[in-house]
Amino acid sequence: QVQLVESGGGLVQAGGSLRLSCAASGSLLRINTMGWYRQAIGKQRELVAVITSDGSTNYADSVKGRFTISRDNAKNTVYLQMDSLTPEDTAVYCCNVANYYGIAFWGKGTLVTVSS
Known about the structure:
11 strands, mainly beta
């Protein structure tokens, strides 16, 4: 019923940029937060960035100043603009959407690979 589909991942050289998109469909009723998480091989999944319905944002320290999260409520889409990428950013990036009832939905993930 609810689907989150990510796109925009791929291979990029260090210093390059990528823009991830996550389009939500289905019965999401009153979306609160939309965010991006990532998990690299051998590491725990971590929050990359999150944006609330009021536009408040929060970023992981490792991406502050380099990544920008935004959302288009009319399109039910959240974006992650990633600039100045480094090999440490290599991971599977997953979209997350949470409503006001405490229910979270996850995308299947898109792989970002940054070469040195």
